């Protein structure tokens, strides 16, 4: 085996400082690593219990792309004012050739992460410590599993991966941060990070899997009778007030469309979070750079848009992200966010729908509980021991809850 180059890790305060082609070439290297660390299912029509827990290795996960991360920065949706200060890690050899990277941010709070550590922060502050700043290796404001250690495939991949982990710890010391949090990592990365000494954490989301359905009715036929009737009723009632559903992608994503969607986002986000992160410019930028990777499901009434859901498209998956509405009609949220995404996935032959964080109501609409993974480095030994003890019990609870939820899936039970 060829000797690995002598790697060094540098920090970039903006993704604009990293060549787009180089960054994206690093994201492509993840598939081989993921595929070598998990077992793919024999068929996506097999029993639900055999669904792929690691998420299908997706070489076109849109959120780790340079275009998406740059849109967040250029629109000032992230940056010093938001409390997400870019500190991207880059692994290179002595000649400056890049072998890997990681999206990293210095955080002054724990907002917009969807992996909650407020209790850890409160306990540490009460004990006299300073929990902030901390480092977050993640895609901001995006609770979607995906690669975090972006390393080019090749004989030096493991060395580059180790260099990234060492770089995280060193940056934590340099910035006098309390901790490093790698959130929504692929399971293969999680295994790698925890074997390197990081603390293991799990949670769960609800995803929908395509079992070789040809039509939405095929999907309904797989459900129990009462759930099938419920979904048909909800879809019917969502449109009873003269609501029309339209799907927009590519050149359909005009500025007037984004104006309407932003109004929905602000209205709903202000009520849920108080201060939505994403700026109006962000939507223009992703519309310019990623139009073919976006599906905007919009609801119209009397010729005017009244609600919408923003989805991103990967190679195998549709990712539901943001929803908003200025009119409220029974079951419209379910139709726009969940049923339209399922129907689109079936029509396009996509393997799954990921509908974001939380939401046990998704279970009754065909989404099943799947685990999510994060890894944590805690600098202070006492805090580390306390968090480690807590996570042991939390992992047991999360797995027991997921098994219980899996028993409640609305699909017909197969008999052998």
Number of strands: 15
Helix content: 25-40%
CATH fold description of the largest domain: Aminopeptidase
Mean pLDDT: 90
Give the CATH level 1 class of the largest domain. Answer: Alpha Beta
- Helix tally equals 12
Distance between the termini: 49 Å
Q: How many structurally independent domains?
A: 2
Biggest sheet strand order reads 2-5-6-8-15-9-14-13-12-11-10
Rg over CA atoms: 22 Å
What composes the largest sheet? Answer: 11 strands, mixed
What would you call the quaternary organization?
single chain
Order of helices and strands: EHHHEEEEHEEHEHEHHEHHEEEHEEH
CATH superfamily of the largest domain: Gcn5-related N-acetyltransferase (GNAT)
Derived structural class: alpha+beta
- Percent of residues in β-strands: 15-25%
Care to give the gist of this entry?
With 416 residues, the protein is α+β, with helices and mostly antiparallel strands. It has helices at 20-28, 30-35, 66-74, 118-126, 157-174, 187-195, 216-221, 225-238, 255-273, 280-289, 332-348, 381-406, and strands at residues 8-12, 84-86, 88-92, 98-102, 104-107, 134-137, 150-151, 179-185, 199-209, 243-248, 294-301, 304-313, 317-325, 352-354, 368-378.
């Amino acid at each position: 085996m060829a000797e690995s180059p002598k790697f060094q890790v540098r920090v970039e305060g903006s993704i604009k400082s990293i060549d787009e082609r180089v960054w994206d070439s690093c994201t492509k290297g993840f598939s081989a690593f993921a595929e070598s660390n998990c077992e793919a299912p024999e068929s996506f029509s097999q029993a639900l219990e055999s669904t792929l827990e690691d998420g299908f290795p997706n070489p076109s996960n849109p959120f780790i792309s340079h275009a998406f991360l740059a849109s967040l920065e250029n629109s000032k949706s992230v940056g010093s004012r938001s409390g997400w200060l870019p500190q991207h890690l880059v692994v290179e050899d002595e000649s400056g050739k890049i072998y890997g990277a990681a999206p990293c941010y210095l955080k002054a709070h724990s907002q917009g992460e969807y992996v909650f550590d407020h209790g850890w922060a409160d306990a540490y502050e009460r004990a006299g410590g300073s929990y902030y700043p901390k480092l977050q290796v993640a895609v901001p404001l995006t609770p979607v599993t995906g690669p975090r250690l972006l390393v080019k495939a090749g004989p030096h991949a493991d060395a580059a991966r180790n260099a990234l982990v060492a770089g995280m710890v060193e940056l934590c010391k340099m910035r006098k941060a309390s901790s490093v949090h790698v959130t929504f990592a692929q399971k293969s990365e999680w295994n790698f990070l925890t074997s390197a000494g990081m603390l293991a954490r799990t949670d769960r989301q609800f995803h929908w899997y395509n079992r070789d359905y040809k039509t939405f009715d095929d999907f309904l036929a797989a459900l129990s009778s009462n759930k099938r009737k419920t979904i048909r009723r909800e879809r019917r009632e969502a449109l009873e007030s003269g609501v029309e559903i339209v799907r927009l992608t590519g050149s359909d994503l005009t500025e007037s469309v984004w104006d309407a969607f932003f109004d929905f986002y602000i209205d709903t986000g202000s009520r849920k979070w108080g201060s939505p992160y994403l700026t109006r410019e962000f939507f223009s930028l992703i519309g310019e750079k990623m139009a073919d990777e976006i599906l905007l499901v919009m609801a119209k009434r009397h010729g005017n848009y009244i609600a919408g859901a923003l989805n991103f498209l990967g190679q195998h998956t549709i990712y539901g992200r943001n929803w908003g509405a200025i009119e409220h009609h029974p079951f419209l949220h379910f139709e726009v966010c969940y049923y339209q995404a399922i129907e689109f996935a079936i029509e396009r032959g996509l393997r799954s729908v990921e509908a974001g964080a939380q939401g046990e109501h998704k279970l009754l609409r065909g989404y099943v509980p799947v685990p999510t993974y994060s890894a944590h480095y805690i600098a202070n030994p006492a805090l580390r021991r306390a968090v480690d003890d807590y996570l042991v019990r939390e992992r047991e609870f999360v797995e027991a809850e997921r098994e219980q939820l899996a028993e409640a899936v609305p699909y017909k039970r197969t008999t052998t």
